[in-house]
Amino acid sequence: MLATYASSAAEKARADHEILNEFYGPVPKAPRRTPMRELISTVLSHRTTHADEELAYDRMLEAFGDWPGVLAAPTADLAHAIRTTRWPDTQAPRIQEILRRIQTETGGSFDLNFLADWPLDRAMAWLTDMPGIGLKTASLLLLFNYRKPVLPVDTHVHRVAQRVGFLGPKVSVEKAHAVLLALLPADAEALFNFHKHNYWHGQQICFFLRPNCPRCPLKGFCNYYQEHYGAATAEALAATPTQWDPAAWGKLPH
């Protein structure tokens, strides 16, 4: 789809999806982690680097063995085990409450696969009712592991959408989940790729400070580019890479 600076939000969102799908390539459908790991790791990741999140998760299970052990652990000991996260004293009781509710829902196990059979609204409401689980965390789990048609929005996706111009400048990250979802096809595979591609784009090109606009394949309809450089010239468009080059720019993250 050809989009312009004057295109509608829906047209820009669809063009973003098509172009970044070509630029980064389709992402395999396999979940990156088990459902329980996806849920608990995402809770641990709040304002924490990926490396520190992974370290906290590994230390937690090394210290307490399994989910029953984590649930039964003294909360102060659990907080110490996950001390590489941003707020361990807050996260520890949250994790134990989440485990307690899962155990109650399942009759004793720590298996989230019942969510696969639940309607989306029920699954989303059940997850977001728990402490520390917001729309982004619930959406990541439901999309990545159960292929529900939802769209996780983090700061990278939010920034790209606002700069390109298919999300209003005053729309919060929380509200952006519904706004962006309405612009895209209700298809889990498309939403998964849209999330991953825009997440990578915000990390690798559309930085918070000094974005790498010359490398960006969205410059032909990006509001930020137009405001800072003027409309993209034929020469600028012709010089834009059409695919991510891992040999030159590095491997894409998880």
UniProtKB/TrEMBL annotation:
Residues covered by the HhH-GPD domain: 44-204
Keywords: Endonuclease, Hydrolase, Nuclease
Keyword presence, Nuclease: yes
Family matches, as CDD domains: ENDO3c (cd00056)
GO MF assignments: endonuclease activity
SUPFAM superfamilies per record: DNA-glycosylase (SSF48150)
UniProt xrefs under Pfam families: HhH-GPD
Keyword field contains Nuclease: yes
Name of the protein: Endonuclease III
